[in-house]
Amino acid sequence: MKKPAQPRYRIKLRWFRPLFWPPLIPIVFLIWLFNKISPVPLKIYLMRVDRIGHLAENTEQVCCKIDLGLIERQFRIYVYRDIPCNMVLFGMWDRVLHVNQFFLLIYDICKKFGGLGILSNEMQDPGRNEYNIVEKCKQHIAFTDDEVDEAKRQCSTLGYDGKNQHVCVLGRDNAYLLLHNKHEDNSHYEYRNVDINTYIPALEHLVARHTVFRMGSIAKDRIRISHPRIIDYPFSGKRSELLDVYLPATCRFFITCGTGLDSIASMCFRVPTLYVNFIPVDLLVNWGSSNITIFKHYWSTQEKRFLTLSEILDSGVGASYDAHRLKEVGVEIVDNSPEEILDAVREMEARLDGAWEETPEDTQLQRAFWEIFTRRHPNREYVARIGAAFLRGNPNWTR
Mind listing the pLDDT tens digit for each residue in 158-191? Predict the structure, then answer.
């Protein structure tokens, strides 16, 4: 069987092992021995730096776990195996974590021997923030004054003077993975993609008060609308790694379908986040008291109707990350309509303005939705909200 190709961003070590293994194996043995006798062991944490969402979310969650005492006392050293996808964000983490690439060589040796109790995989899979730990902790990273000044200068070249607040909008397509993950088949993710032009009514509403940045390092389609306060950032020719971080970190709120870059806003900088076209349902955002979510719809091709929330969860399709599997079981995914997206944006604005009026019907529908989830996942902490108009217009989501 042919060995899978290594991604192009992987730091190559294999050809140098004959040079560094012999002198470092005794050091590995001493670390192993130290961990056997010390009440505070030394652990090497491998950072996830290949995608910006993981660099933001995984690292922030681990820092919060440490703050809350959910990870035991340790001497921690951080290393990375891939070329960082964003050097600005990585540099911000490097300012607060003990990153030492010498220990990547130690990591490489330990990995070949099963970890030896020295390696930690916590940053590879820290969990899903099911217990709202991020909101319980202080923010860990921040911009320097020089970074802020430079970001503002770059914003001015995009035509944004900062006098009004800005909103970031991120719509997922396959352009990034086709470039970044050529070594993998990513077709099973296609059901998570969206048409950014279905967001146009919401964008037209937002520009009355905000400048809107359509985010992304690259994108498949341009926005089919021209307005001085709508900046199609991926096509601007002025994208930078600094603005990739600064714009989400400083926006009034972030609109996303739940992919990568939004973690800078929602996790690292605690920015209120609106999730539209969110899927899969089982991974819904239950954390963040300022967050709102509306979902893509699950259509049964056999019964010619939308599945209820209970059916989605009980059948297992709500946890599926495989578009091919959904088709096999007779489920089609239907995106949110432009009207659903606009309604959710209006609700987010009203809540942030302090002008939202909750009706008894809204309260009842929220309770009905979360009760279905709580019965299946009783240990999660539920503080986020589902879009009010979305629940009113789609009764299948509360059954």
Answer: 999 999 999 999 998 765 554 555 555 555 567 7
